[in-house]
Amino acid sequence: MKVSEVTIADLKQYAHVYHAEDDALFTTILTACKAYIQGYTGLTADAMNSREELTVALFVLANELYDNRSFTVQDNKVNRVAKSILDMHVTNLV
């Protein structure tokens, strides 16, 4: 599955959410995750689609955002699975 093919229904299934109350939230999360991946890696949307493993990072990030909606920060680290996948595709290193 390509990043552009991911829907909020896919994210909800991954997060085991079976109600419609959070559809607007999942829409925002999907948009934010795509922007985060693109900004983190420096890849274009087309380049992101050619790397299907980034879809896994999108699911992990989206689930993390949904599960951790509170403002409390317990750990200042990015999810290790998502970080390792994204790090493989970084093109905007300084």
Can you describe what's shown?
The chain has helices at 8-14, 23-41, 45-49, 53-67, 80-87. The chain has five helices and no strands. The chain has 94 residues and is mainly alpha-helical. The termini are far apart.
CATH class: Mainly Alpha
- Please tell me the CATH architecture by its name: Orthogonal Bundle
Shape category: globular
**Main β-sheet: number of strands, strand sense, barrel status?**
none
- Along the chain, the helix and strand elements come as HHHHH
**Cα Rg:** 13 Å
Quantity of strands, as a count: 0
Note the beta-strand portion.
Answer: under 5%
Domain count: the total is 1
Q: Name the helicity range.
A: 55-70%
How large is the count of helical segments? 5
CATH topology tier name: Hypothetical protein yqbg
Q: Give the CA-CA distance, first to last residue.
A: 30 Å
Q: Structural class of the helix and strand makeup?
A: mainly alpha
Arithmetic mean of pLDDT: 86
List keywords for this structure.
single chain; 94 residues; 57% helix; globular
Produce the secondary structure layout.
Blueprint: H1 8-14, H2 23-41, H3 45-49, H4 53-67, H5 80-87
How would you concisely characterize the structure shown here?
With 94 residues, the chain is an all-alpha fold.
